[in-house]
Amino acid sequence: MLRIYFIWVLFLIITLVICLCPLVIHCPVLDMMHAELNSTDTQFGVTVNISCLPGYRINGQTAKTVRCTGTGHWSHYNHTCLRMLHLTLMLKKFVKQHHICLIFNSGHYQK
To answer: Is 80 helix (H, G, I), strand (E, B) or coil?
Structure first.
């Protein structure tokens, strides 16, 4: 009889401990090549900003932030950082150095 009582009390204690412990939700670790993340935290509710390394551009959602949701998944997480073509990089550098504003008008660039 004492053994049954002891098992019952032990069961109640374990049940209380399990119920009182908060459930911590985590998302998978973000693994993006050629990207910088402002945080490595994966806990529920955290927001992570994504930026691509120089020479790369973001592809995917327009939002550059993702948030760990209550389901354990990242919101809007289909980003990749794609390598820009060398010509594109050269054009961007030239335009920036010479303060040129390019306007696309009827199929022609105007300065």
So the answer is: strand
Does some domain include residue 12? no
Residue type, 87: L
For residue 59, the domain's CATH number is 2.10.70.10
Phi, psi angle pair for 15, to nearest 5° = -60, -45
* Residue 14 covered by a domain: no
Number of domains in the chain: 1
What number is the average pLDDT over the span 71-93?
78
Domain hosting residue 64, numbered range: 25-110
Identify whether the C-beta of residue 47 lies closer than 8 Å to the C-beta of residue 63: no
Q: Is the pTM of this model over 0.70?
A: no
SS3 label, residue 25: coil
Across 34-65, b (16+ Cβ under 10 Å) vs e yields ebeeeeebbebeeebebebeeebebeeeeeee
